[in-house]
Amino acid sequence: MSFSPSALATIKLTLFHADDLAKSWNFAEYTYGKFGSTFLKSNGFSPDAVLQQMFQLAYRRLHSKSVSQYCVAATMAFKAGRNDRVRSNTIECKAFVDAVMEGEAKHNLKEVSERSERALMKTRNIYEPLN
């Protein structure tokens, strides 16, 4: 297969920009060792639902807003990483994220925990039948 000079120039420019973007990434790895998926499952929580809550919280912290979205969230750069999707924001998920962002000044830990549980159950009920 041969490409026109214009197409080759576009490919090279795109590669340059992609390489430049990759060099600008700044991330840190953190392994949470207090519990894992076995603990979550044994307490009735879906690990995928917990991950979705964390994606929504991370998005809110980065962009100062909550949105409904469906996009790939790659964690492949990390050991045992994978691709997952940031899924639609439910009312329950937003209430949990709002409570975390507002902090204990407005919400006690029990209330945040209850909001988390409602959000996790809602996410689990929506997406588990799809898997």
Structure notes:
There is one protein chain. Helices cover 56% and strands 6% of the residues. It has one domain (37-130): Chloramphenicol Acetyltransferase (2-Layer Sandwich). It has a two-stranded antiparallel ribbon. The protein is mostly helical and 131 residues long. The chain is built from five helices and two strands, in the order αααββαα.
Any key phrases for this structure?
131 residues; Chloramphenicol Acetyltransferase; single chain; mainly alpha; 5 helices
The CATH class assignment is Alpha Beta
- Secondary-structure element series: HHHEEHH
CATH topology: Chloramphenicol Acetyltransferase
Arrangement of strands in the largest sheet = 1-2
Unreliable sequence segments? none
Query: Per CATH, which architecture?
Result: 2-Layer Sandwich
Largest sheet: 2 strands, antiparallel
Quote the beta fraction. Answer: 5-15%
Q: What is the mean predicted local confidence, pLDDT?
A: 75
Termini separation (Å)?
39 Å
| Radius of gyration over C-alpha positions, nearest whole angstrom | 19 Å
Q: How many DSSP-defined strands?
A: 2
